[in-house]
Amino acid sequence: MNTTLTRLRHIMRAFSAQRATFQRILANRLTTNQNLSPTVQQQLKKANLNHSQIEILSLVSQESELAYKALTDKVSFSQGMLSRYVARLVKLQLLEKVPLVDNKKAYNLKATDTGRFVAKLMIRSTKKKTLS
Fold first, then answer.
1. Longest dimension (CA), the chain
2. Which of 14, 43, 65, 70 has the fewest Cβ atoms within 10 angstroms?
3. How many whole angstroms from its chain centre is CA 89?
4. Nearest residue to 26 via CA among 131, 126, 112
5. Distance from C-alpha of 81 to C-alpha of 107, rounded to nearest angstrom
6. What is the CA 105 to chain-centroid distance, rounded?
7. What pLDDT tens digit does each residue of the chain (132 aa) get?
C-alpha cells in the first residue's frame, strides 16, 4: 500500500512538472511570436491556456466549422468542462459561436484567425518535440 502511494505521488509530481513545462513553452511561443500583436500576446500569456483548451482549439481549427455536439464526441472530458473551456476560448476571441438557423439552442464553433494561428503554432511545436 505504501509503495502504491509513493508511486502515485511520483506520477502526480511528474504530471505537474509536465504541465508546468507545457505552460512555459506555450507562453514562450505566444509571447515571442511577431505575428501576434503585443496586446494579444499579453492577453494569451495571462490566460494561461491548458492542454485541453489547446486540444479544443486544434480540433475546431481543423474544420471550417464544427458542431458543438460533434466536439463533445471528440474530447474525453465532461460536457460541463467542455462548456467552460469553450466559453473561455470565445471570451479570448480564439473561437466564435456560429448560431444555427434551424435550432436556437445549438451552435457550431469556428476558430478565429488568431485561434487557428495559436493552434498551428502549438501543433508545430509538439511535432518538433516528438521528432527530436
1. 58
2. 14
3. 8
4. 126
5. 17
6. 24
7. 678 888 888 888 888 888 778 777 777 777 777 888 888 888 887 888 888 898 999 999 999 999 998 999 999 989 999 999 999 999 999 999 999 888 888 899 999 999 998 888 776 655 544 444
Q: Which amino acid is at 127?
A: K
Q: Taking a C-beta distance cutoff of 8 angstroms, is the pair 45, 33 a contact?
A: no
Partner residues linked to 66 by β-bridges: 109
Cα separation, 66 vs 111, in Å, equals 9
Separation of CA 62 from chain center? 13
- Find where cell 521528432 sits: 131
pTM of the full structure: 0.76
Q: What is the DSSP string of the chain?
A: -HHHHHHHHHHHHHHHHHHHHHHHHHHHHHHT-TTS-HHHHHHHHHHT--HHHHHHHHHHHTSSSEEHHHHHHH-SS-HHHHHHHHHHHHHTTSEEEEE-SS-SS-EEEEE-HHHHHHHHHHHHHHHHHHH-
